[in-house]
Amino acid sequence: MSSAFVVLALSLLLGIQPVTTDLYLPALPALTQDLGATVAQAQLTLSGLLLAFGLSQLVWGPVSDRFGRRPVLLLGLATYVVAAIGSVLASSMDTLLVWRVAQGAAMGASVMCARAMVRDLYSPELGARAISKGLSGLGVIACLSIPLGGVLAEFFGWRVALAALVVFGVVTLALIVLRFEETLARPDPNALRPATLVRTWGMVLRHPTFRAFALLAAATYGGLFTFLAASSFVFIKLMALSRIHYGVLMFLMALAYLGGTFLCRRLLVRLGVQRTVAIGGVFSLVGGSVLGLGGLAGLQGEWAIMAPMLIYMVGHGIHQPCGQAGAVGPFPQAAGAASALSGFLMMVIAFAMGQWLGASMDGSVLPLTNGLWFWGVATAAVAWGLVGRVPRGA
Q1: Which DSSP category does 187 fall into?
Q2: Residue 125: what pLDDT?
Q3: 185: which DSSP letter?
Q4: Which residues, 6 or more positions from 244, have their beta carbon under 8 angstroms from its beta carbon?
Q5: What distance in Å separates the CA atoms of residue 180 and residue 189, rounded to the nearest whole number?
Q6: What pLDDT is recorded for position 127?
Q7: Are 128 and 326 in contact (CB under 8 A)?
Q8: For residues 23 and 19, what is the distance between their CA atoms, to the nearest angstrom?
Q9: Rounded (10°) angle between helices 302-328 and 124-155
Q10: Contact 27, 162 (CB under 8 A)
Q11: Mean pLDDT by 10-residue block, N- to C-terminus, for the chain (394 residues)?
């Protein structure tokens, strides 16, 4: 496969996550009302999806180490398309939740294999640059997802917004069927044996490099998820912005993330991984702290939230490529398992935040701003502490 195709495949396989989580956000208040559900139930369609996404990777990872990335991608993407169609046709919130959970489980195959194939094809240092290109593509997809979701929800309804996920899934599946070649050179015939699984997971979890970079990716994603889960209710319900206006704000946020991925590649070449991550920690801490202090001071305008969030998103664009590539870097023979454990940790944090937000949304901006403040501080602590102590070359 050409390097250009690898970047395209990474962009689509990683981009399935923001498409699935972001595109329906502008429609979330409308579908909540249409299906007669509560805000807590609506939050569960996002947090439940992400919990299934995280748990499924613990299965997909070892399976892909045993049978290869291609068959796992084909099965996962086909299941995703079926679940996306079921979501469009759902007649109740309970039914929608079931299909969204199935979507999350299927989505796990796509994202896990994307991270694992980076380790199949590249060394750890080159892998961070390669995945940053794929995450730049993800940034473009994220830039388009929420504005498109806003337009579709505003003019055609929430079911049409969810139907866009069907189209994305079909296109990605067709590309994998027609062009994707297996990247795993030597499948492990013992990968699914219980003793091997326990030994592999123990080896991964004990490795200080994995712990540092997996926690970095999870902490910065915790902040992003907090914003995604709460922002539609804050901007559309609390501030009475239109869905299209909300989509424009989310476009700017995704654009800041995209800029962060470009900055990440430049910094990696000049400074290396650890110093790049340390610089990203400044953006995370400043953005999260300004947002949190502004919330406590009673600043509730859209730009009181968006300006510091844009700063945070630049840091997110630096930390995700480094975190995702760094977590699988030490494990060329178990990249699927390492990718799965890293993804599982991210989604456990997302699920916990979703549950907390569902219980804490009180008609103010404070759950959003306090949550971002916490994750900004946590991300900076991991960036300057754990990652900074990882031995070079580990």
Answers
A1: -
A2: 63
A3: S
A4: 147, 150, 151, 154
A5: 22
A6: 67
A7: yes
A8: 5
A9: 140
A10: yes
A11: 82 87 78 77 79 86 87 95 93 88 92 83 69 74 78 84 92 93 83 84 89 93 88 83 82 87 87 91 95 88 92 93 84 79 84 81 85 95 88 58
Please state, as a whole number, how many other Cβ atoms lie within 10 Å of the Cβ of residue 275: 13
**138, 146, 168: which is closest to 24 by C-alpha?**
146
Which pLDDT belongs to residue 325? 81
Q: What is the pLDDT of residue 78?
A: 96
* CA 126 from centroid of its chain's CA atoms: 21
298 sits in the region (left: phi over 0; alpha: psi -120 to 50; else beta) called left
- Phi-psi bin for 38: left (phi > 0), alpha (psi -120 to 50), beta? beta
DSSP string, 73-137: HHHHHHHHHHHHHHHHT--SHHHHHHHHHHHHHHHHHHHHHHHHHHHHHS-HHHHHHHHHHHHHH
Q: How many CB atoms lie within 10 A of CB 130?
A: 23
Residues in CB range of 202: below 8 A, 6 or more apart: none
Hey, how many other C-beta atoms are within 10 angstroms of the C-beta on 167?
A: 12
C-alpha to C-alpha distance for 57 and 317, rounded to whole angstroms: 23
Quick one: tokens of 206? 């004990």
Greatest alpha-carbon span in the chain: 59
Nearest CA among 181, 172, 232 for reference residue 17:
172
Q: What is the DSSP string of 33-80?
A: HHTT--HHHHHHHHHHHHHHHHHHHHHHHHHHHHH-HHHHHHHHHHHH
Instruction: Return the number of other C-beta atoms located less than 10 Å from residue 14's C-beta.
Output: 23
Specify the pLDDT at position 222: 92
